Amino acid sequence: MKVLLATQKPFAPQAVKGIEEILTKAGHTLVKLEKYPGEEELKAAAADADAMIVRSDKVTAAVLDAAPSLKIVVRAGAGYDNIDLEAASAHKVVAMNTPGQNANAVAELAIGLMIFMARTQFTPVSGSELEGKTLGLQAFGHVGRLVGGKAKALGMKVLAFDPFLKDEQIQEGGATPVHSLEQLYSSSDYLSLHIPALPSTIGSIGRSLVEKMPKGATLVNTARKEVIDEPGLLEILKEREDLKYVTDVMPDNYAEMQEACGTRVFATPKKMGAQTAEANVNAGLAAARQIAAFFESGDCRFQLNKF
Ligand code: 3PG
Question: Which one of 5, 11, 54, 56 would you pick to mutate in the ligand 1 pocket, going by the greatest count of ligand atoms within 8 A of its CB?
């Protein structure tokens, strides 16, 4: 089978090598499309692909239309908001992700961003420490748990809100459960977002939640830019000169935010949470193994869509 590795943001070379080894051993052929300019190139490369591995690359209905032989697409990573699942089902294409595989890289970045902001973006002005502060985790999945564990090691108090988990599950993961977003936001010196981008979460974090945060608090977003109501956030950041916002990746109104807030805001130019060699190897090799298992035995363990 022909497997297309389509990554606008390429994997580390050792990950690509590992993917190729797994697929070749299983009798498949790997074709690479890296740093490509846009959908047209993806459509052309997908025309005769039986399987596809992507990162945040957009797998739209048009891409699926252009790939008549495609049987499976694996998002090497956790968030699958870049795959049109409905269109995949309509095309009878199995869509999968590789949950947890790049979680540690994202968790380390969240901690790094907190320290960066606590130390005023590494400028020489006097900053603050994380020890003794309260971290609120909005969602307690793979990444949230890891951020919580690392924060505890730094001496932070860790709270978590996750409506899909029981209190015991949050406690077993080492955090203190809270039962409303209002309570989470009003108790957290650092609020770290770990929610997916879904119709119910897109634009859901804005003024009304952020204004509840205590004096000097920092909102940390290593989830998705889409979950933020960016105009609403800018409004409250302008009004409350004590609040900070740090995000992986750049908001649409970043220039305005920077102008109004200076070192109280920081955004990475390109999403870099999972951009480590280790995460690339973990997620990339998992994707290759899932494709090999799918063709070998019909293994659909990580399937996201139904048809
Ligand atoms: C994920 O959802 O797994 C992360 O956001 C990683 O995305 P990336 O593969 O585009 O870096």
Answer: 56
| C-alpha span between 237 and 64 (Å, rounded) | 41
Q: What is the CATH number of domain 103-267?
A: 3.40.50.720
Q: Whose CA is nearest to atom 2 of ligand 1?
A: 79
Distance (Å, rounded) from C-alpha 207 to C-alpha 108?
27
For residue range 99-127, what is the model confidence (pLDDT) as tens digits? Answer: 999 999 999 999 999 999 999 999 999 99
Domain 2-101+276-297 matching CATH 3.20.20.10: the answer reads no
**Which residue's alpha carbon is at the smallest distance from atom 10 of ligand 1?**
56
Q: Do 103-267 and 2-101+276-297 fall under one CATH topology?
A: yes
pLDDT band for position 261 (cuts 50, 70, 90) = very high
The reported pLDDT for the residue numbered 90 is: 98
Positive or negative: CA dihedral 176, 180, 181, 182: negative
Please, are residues 99 and 110 in contact by the beta-carbon 8 Å criterion? no
CA of 157 to the centre of ligand 1 (A): 27
Q: Quick one: which H or E segment has residue 118?
A: helix 103-118
Q: How far is the CA of 144 from the centre of ligand 1 (A)?
A: 15
Helix (H) or strand (E) holding 168, with range, is helix 167-172
Proportion of the chain above pLDDT 70, given as a percent: 100
Neighbour tally for 17: CB within 10 Å: 13
132-145 in b/e form (b: 16+ CB < 10 A) is ebbbbbbbbbbbbb
- The rounded mean pLDDT for the chain is 98
Ligand 1 binding pocket mutation candidate from 59, 82, 102 (most atoms within 8 A of CB): 102
Hey, whose CA ends up nearest to atom 9 of ligand 1? Answer: 55
What residues are in contact with ligand 1 under a 6 Å CB criterion? 9, 55-56, 77-79, 102, 271, 273-275
Q: What is the pTM of this model?
A: 0.96
